[in-house]
Each structure stands twice: as structure tokens, then as C-alpha cells.
Amino acid sequence: MKKITMTLCAVICAICAISAQNQATGEFLNLFTEDVQPKAISENGEWACGASLIDQYFTNAVKWNLTTGETIYLQDDEKAQSDAYCISNDGTLVGGAYLNEPAYNLNGKWIALKSPFLALEGGNAVGEVVSITIKDGDTICLGWYYTQTEAVLARWKNGTPDDDFSDYEYTNSYHTKTRINENQSKFHQLKGVSNDGSCILVTLDGIYVPSAGSQNYITTFVQNGDKVQIIDREFDERYEATSFVNNAILSSNGKWVCGDIMAFGKANTDAPAQTYIAFLYDVEKDTLITFEALPSGKMTSATAVDNYGNVYFRSVNGSDPLCKPYIYKNKEYTELENCLLAYSGISAEAIDAIITDETAGTDEDDLGHIWAVSAEGNTILGAGGATKGNIWCAKLSCSPYNVDPIVAIEDVTYNNLAAYYANGMITLSGNAEKIDVYSITGAKVLTSAIENATIKADLNNGIYIVKIYNGNNIATSKIIVK
């Protein structure tokens, strides 16, 4: 009797956990846009932007309304190349590049931003706008400009170079301090800006990849007001000092940086010769946290971070993979798909619709790659294919870090009682007398006495819990209908 009571308690706890998720709701949008790559999401999660590939050489900027799912192209001319890297909360302002020069788009019209250094350097220049905001009625753009000899950081106010903003004096001293080869071009690429503009993320000499033993380090640092902090790469004595931050993303509040370290293993150690290691950098504490590889052995790539330091990952296996996205919760990796399925309103069928030529017939996940998350982490932008147009957006009532994933619902068995689902039928094992079927929200959707081992079940796509009765004994099984 004690065993039966404990089993019943376990079942009740499982159902209560499911019912608690009833408040977690979500919407899964398929933003299919032919040959497009997403780049960024607005801080409030209402808009996104990216670029569509016209041919081998040209791209055109595009934005999405994440409330309606509408795709809006931003080109003035089909052959005028443009790109988009940031977007305002109301969607009216898009920052990026037009004809390879820094520019912003206001209500569909591109406004090019000239460099104050261009007249001195001569020739054409390229660059991009990384951050765009409206402050006290002024349109403020931050970005970088490359003049073939040196790239510099710049700020524009209402389309005019801001004389109060000059290239950061720290860059030259940090070239020397980090022993970067002074004979190489000093490439200062702006990677991110906080929403209040006080914190920036910069990469120096980002166009050069150092070989083992080279003195030409790639340096990534955060400047928070007057304080400059290098993101330390020497995190493990098994790796060479030439290990460098390969990719970095700044949270919108400027408190966190996530990304990947390209690490070169030292000889006579157990470290691989070359690997990617995902990291999270705490700007306020000036500390670096690294993440282990997946249990499968695949490397992980940190691709987005919200204002709370919650990191989103994808697995890395090969030159340009489209593998499963993950979150890191309770000191272990959890597949994002299992979290999304815990939201009422998101079905396995909607997620499966993102399948692509790259992922079909493989063990890769349909969700593919996470490109960006909103400040609160409740809107996620991703792509199931690199250039196939399978763009998706998950709009959620709360962050996936606040929802128990489906995999946390464990089966409770008793004397081999179990349920399986296939082709519209529930098949039972063991001596079952009756079953009740509950949706993930805790609603009972089916009850049936057992006359044989197979029961017809007309169920919508989703996750269900089957309670199986044998006298006073109860078991539960989780089934997935796809």
C-alpha cells in the first residue's frame, strides 16, 4: 500500500508540474523569406532585421514585424546593395549599410553616413551601423568605418558625424599592451553597443587570424564608460596564449558578453589541437565562465545572451553545421525544442515545418541556429537553414529558462504498464484496465476502458501524459504526437 501511495504522489506531482506550466504560453511564427539571413532583434522583441541574398554578390536589407509576421524589404533599388544589423523598438529605424557605407533606414528610405576621415584618407570606404537609437529627439548611430588603411569607430547624430565622439584612445595603447604586431592594420570593429550607449564591445585586428606562436593577437574588449576590460583568453593552461575570442555578442544592457574562444591546444596535453569553447563574460565582475562540450562530445557555440546572463547555444560539428540549439540550465544542456513544446500554443507540427534541405534525413535539429534573443529572453529569432529562408520566431510569455522542459516529465511504471503512440493509435503493454490522457496543460482529453491493447486516439500534435490503471495501481507514460 505504501508503494501505491508513493506512486500516486509521484503521479500527482507530475500532473501538478504540468498544470503549473499552464501559464506558459507561446506563439511560433514561420517567417519564411527566400534566401535570407536574420541578423538582429529589437530590444523589446517586436521587430527583427537581416538581409536577403539577391545573387552571389548583392544583398538587400529586410525587416520583419514579429507581431504580424510580415516581411518588409528595404531596398531602394534591386541592385543597390544594403544590409541590416540593428532595429529600433518601433521598427521605423534600421541601422546597417547601404552601398557598403554606414547608413540607416528611416521608414523605408536609406540615409548614407559619410566618414569625417574619408577626405583625409582618400578613396572609397566601407563600414556599418551597429546601434541606432533616438535620444532627446536625435537619431544616434554608432558604427565603424574602414578606409583600407585603418578602421575607426564613429558616431553620427541626425546623419552628421558627432565631433564629441572620437576614436577610442585606448585602442593604440592596447595594441602595445597585448603585443599586437604594430606593422599590421589596426582594425577596430564595433561588435555591440548597450541600449544606453555607455558600454561598447570592440574587436581589434579582427581581420587577422593568428597562427600558433604569432604575436598578432586578436583582442576583444569591453569599454564601460571610462573603464576598459579585455576579455581574457588565457583561461586554461592547456591552451596557447594565441587562443582568441572568435565571436562575441553583447547583451542589450551591456552586462554580459557571450561567444566562442578559438583555442589552440598545447603539445603534450590532452587538449585538442584546435577547438571552439563557448564562454560567458560578466562585465561587472570582469570574470569569464567557459562551458564544457555537449555529452555527445560536440562543441558548443554561444550565439545569444539576454539581460540576465542566460546563454543560448548551438552544437558545432563540421565546417558550417546547422545543429540543435540548447540552453544551459541547472548545470546541463537542454534542447530548446523541448522547452518550446512546454508552452501552450506551440506544437511539434509548427516546429517540424522549419525542416530544410540541410537538415532533412539527418540527426540535425529543425530549429537550426539561434541568431538573437530579446532583452528579456522571451522572443527568440532563429533559422532552420543558412540560406533557405526558413526563418522562425518564438514569442513566449516567459524565458525558456523559466519553464521546465518536456524531458523533465518522467515515466512512472508499475508491473510493465506503459503506453506508446503511433499512427493515431495508443498501444499498451502490461495488464491495463483503463487509461486517462491529459494534455500538457493538464486538461483531460481522453478516457477509455481497455478491451484490447490498442486504442484509437484522435489527438492533435503535442505532448500528452497517459495515466494507466490496473486496479489500485497507476502508471504514467509520456507520448508525443507529431
Care to describe what's here?
With 482 residues, this protein is mainly β. It folds into 2 domains: 2-20 and 408-481, Penicillin-binding protein Tp47, domain D (Immunoglobulin-like); 22-407, YVTN repeat-like/Quinoprotein amine dehydrogenase (Methylamine Dehydrogenase, Chain H), CATH 2.130.10.10. 9% of the residues lie in helices and 44% in strands. It is built from 5 helices and 35 strands. It has helices at 2-20, 118-121, 170-177, 336-340, 348-352; strands at residues 26-30, 36-41, 47-53, 59-65, 71-73, 82-87, 93-98, 101-106, 109-112, 126-135, 138-146, 151-157, 160-161, 188-193, 199-204, 219-224, 227-230, 244-250, 256-264, 274-282, 287-290, 299-305, 311-316, 325-329, 332-335, 369-373, 379-383, 391-396, 418-422, 425-429, 434-439, 444-449, 454-456, 462-470, 473-481. The strands form 9 sheets. The chain has a 4-stranded antiparallel beta sheet, with no helix packed on it.
